[in-house]
Amino acid sequence: MNGKISRRDFLNGTQIAIGTSILSPFQSVLGSPNLEFSLADDYYPPSLTGLRGSHDGSWEVMHSRVLGKKWPTTSYEEKYDLAVVGAGISGLTAAYHYQKKHPQAKILVIDNHDDFGGHAKRNEFNINGEMRIGYGGTEAIDTPSSYSSEAKELIKEIGIDVEKFYEAYDQSLYSSMDLGKGIVFDNQSFSEQKLVTGYNKIPWEEFAANSPMNEKAKSDLVRLWTEKKDYLPVLSDEEKHNLLSKVSYYDFLKDYVKVDQQVLEIFRRWGMSFWVVGIDEVPATSIQSYDGGMPGLNQTLKRSGYRGDEPYIFHFPDGNASVARLLVRKLIPEAVPGSSMEDVVLAKVNYALLDKNSLTRIRLNSTVVNVSHNQDSSAVDLTYVRNYQAHTIRAEKCILACYNSAIPYLCSELPKKQVEGLKYNIKVPLTYTKVMIPNWRAFAELGLDFVYYTNDFFKQVELDYPVSIGGYKFNKSPNDPMVLHMCHSHHSIDIKGPDQWKEGRRRLLSTPFSVFEDHVKSQLDQALGKAGFDAGKDITAITVNRWPHGYSYSNDLLWEPDWPSEESKPWVIGRQQFGRIAIANSDAGAAADTNSAITHGIRAANEMLAI
Ligand SMILES: Cc1cc2nc3c(=O)[nH]c(=O)nc-3n(C[C@H](O)[C@H](O)[C@H](O)COP(=O)(O)OP(=O)(O)OC[C@H]3O[C@@H](n4cnc5c(N)ncnc54)[C@H](O)[C@@H]3O)c2cc1C
Q1: Does the Cβ of 139 fall within 6 Å of ligand 1?
Q2: Rg of the Cα atoms in the chain
Q3: What is the mean pLDDT of the chain?
Q4: How buried is residue 327: exposed, middle or buried, by Cβ count under 10 Å (0-12/13-18/19+)?
Q5: Pick from 154, 600, 83: which is nearest to 362 by CA?
Q6: Is the CB of residue 109 below 6 angstroms from any atom belonging to ligand 1?
Q7: Over 70: is that where the pLDDT of 9 sits?
Q8: What is the mean pLDDT of residues 567-593?
Q9: d(CA 121, CA 46)
Q10: How far, in Å, CA of 410 to CA of 393, rounded?
Q11: Which atom of ligand 1 is nearest to 595's Cα?
Q12: How many angstroms separate the CA atoms of 504 and 488, rounded?
């Protein structure tokens, strides 16, 4: 075994900033390592509040690895048929697909978080004895009709019938209460900070008149929404599409519709929760169907929506955390009681069983720091750090379902071209903040289900999606508790391209909970104060789901080159099988969606099944 450790390695091993590391070679001297990994009976991370998402304790080991710290691969402590790095939807799918073909296989899924699901994170709240559920990340099965055939099949296999959401999701609740969108105009770009309600509901003349915009901007906003004009009349449909796929929506509004600067300032950050860049970097063709359809484009460009006619309703109360829970139910049935998509919503997961007696195990709070083939390439050795201790396991096969850009730090054997392909996938940082309030009367009184802030820390606050499934009922009365959704993503007006995501990540990791809390309070008071909302007494809990490594890289933005072929795309080069190692995660398709996570989980499992 390659268990030799030099003094230098040992010194490096002890210099870890976050604690003392006791390394495996010394365990053979000091006695056998503690291999009891199961979690306590009362371990239940969904009910934790405060700073969640990539919580403290989940990222430090990997960051020190990226900064150069090494943990030597030592004698292995356990042996598996398959090891999967990452217990997000992709890794869980890969494990399930493999297990299906090899029911007797010993599988270990390893994740650095204290919960499984990756971005698909469940948040629970308790208010006056009532349990309310929120989604901390991956919120919906977006456009299931567009899923790959394998992904559609998997969704069915784990027990989800997407048709049931037509019943579960009350599509007319908010409109029947006459609720809609409001905008809080900021006082830098406009004459005053002001909430204006009735966006896209009251006549545009009235909305504009209520706003703190200058007269030209008011008339331009009305024109933008009401004028039925083709702004590129001499071009064919194809020419228009080609042109507008290279023109940002910002420039389209500025140069073709010729709107006032203040109208541009309304929309500048409109797509921040989706693309996490300003509209000056989103092609007009990409944004056309966003948010029900962006103004100015419909008479110019043939509509080609990413969502088509399918409504955005395929949502469990905890988002796709239920997809992750249903996958875990398949992998370790005793850990997730129940048998249907309805009962999974209220199922109490028994975390103590995740890593106990079953053939497939999920090991949480464990960061993989090294992955390499053994000497004769008949297996893969993985070293992970858990509770400051390094452990090595051996697996016949390995699937890396973690962030693709981090893989080169784990796996030093990969060819240079593949490393470059993997590193291309710069992750997109954002937060989903959940705010528990005892009633939502202020929203009802002001006629709001969504508030957009033109330029503030949180880009928006929304009422929850009205979904009732199984025993979980959505609180339809404004007198009852509600989990609000607030989204923050940093906007760098002067940094363009993927560098702004690196800057956003740096800022996110250095922003303490108190800053989020202050903005939650001030922005809610600002929007709702005149209807009696008082953040000082009307907020009972806040959970900040911080995702410094959030969405997969977006490849539909203005800077993306036209790749000559599918094979030349960096993420395709990056995801190639390497010996006994396959690469999954939604990153492998450069698409921030569950379809990509599942499709590439299955593809990676198939690669491993074939050897
Ligand atoms: C806030 C947010 C909202 C989203 N909303 C939607 C939506 O509504 N619909 C949709 O389809 N998609 C959405 N997405 C996209 C989402 O990323 C995918 O749908 C999917 O959940 C990704 O799953 P995954 O398994 O590929 O990756 P992840 O969920 O990121 O899972 C990878 C796991 O690997 C772990 N890991 C990384 N490195 C290591 C290591 N060294 N050792 C151990 N573990 C490691 C990670 O911590 C993580 O837990 C959203 C994403 C975010 C961040």
Answers
A1: yes
A2: 25
A3: 93
A4: buried
A5: 83
A6: no
A7: no
A8: 98
A9: 8
A10: 14
A11: 11
A12: 10
- pLDDT for 277 equals 97
Q: Residue 599 is which amino acid?
A: T
What are the phi and psi torsion angles at 535 (to 5°)?
A: -60, -30
> What's the CA gap between 516 and 459, in Å, rounded?
12
Q: Is the full-model pTM beyond 0.85?
A: yes
With a CB cutoff of 8 Å and minimum separation 6, the contacts of 532 are 441, 442, 445
For residue 584, how far is its CA from the centre of ligand 1 (angstroms)?
11
Nearest-5° Cα angle at 385, 604 to 14: 140
Q: DSSP 3-state assignment of 155?
A: helix
pLDDT digits (tens, 9 = 90+) for 336-359: 999 999 999 999 999 999 999 899
Per the listing, tokens 């690469």 go with 583
Residue nearest to atom 29 of ligand 1 (CA): 118
What is the Cα–Cα distance from 270 to 291, expressed in whole angstroms? 9
Report the nearest atom of ligand 1 relative to the CA of 65. 41
Q: Which residues contact 138 (CB under 8 A, 6 or more apart)?
A: 89, 117, 118, 119, 120, 121, 319, 320, 321, 323, 594
| Residues 70, 424: Cα–Cα separation, whole Å | 23
Distance from residue 340's CA to the centre of ligand 1 (Å): 24
By residue count, the chain amounts to 611
The structure tokens listed for 113 are: 């978080």
Indicate the SS3 state at residue 71: coil
Degrees, nearest 5: CA angle 367-114-593: 85
Nearest residue CA, atom 41 of ligand 1?
Answer: 368
Angle, CA of 345, 350 and 356, to the nearest 5°: 140
Token pair in block for residue 27:
């365990």
Give the Cα separation of 461 and 476 in Å (integer): 18
Q: Which atom of ligand 1 is nearest to the CA of 600?
A: 26
Q: Is 90 in the pocket of ligand 1 (CB under 6 A)?
A: yes
In the structure encoding, which two tokens stand for residue 136, read together?
């901390």
For 75, half-sphere exposure in the C-beta direction (CA atoms, 13 angstrom radius) is: 10
Does residue 364 have a pLDDT over 90?
yes
3-state secondary structure 318-368: CCCHHHHHHHHHHHCHHHCCCCCCCCCCCCCCCHHHCCCCCCEEEECCEEE
Distances 233 to 173, 305, 516, 543 between C-alpha atoms, Å: 40, 21, 47, 50
Residue 132 near ligand 1, beta carbon < 6 Å: no
| Ligand 1: centre distance to CA 472 (Å) | 25
Task: Tell which one of 368, 501, 586 to mutate to probe ligand 1, the residue whose CB is within 8 A of the most ligand atoms.
Answer: 586
pLDDT single digits (tens) 375-402: 999 999 999 999 999 999 999 999 999 9
Are 580 and 380 within 8 A, CB to CB? Answer: yes
Position 21, amino acid:
S
- Using an 8 Å Cβ cutoff, are 325 and 73 in contact? no
Contact 437, 538 (CB under 8 A): yes
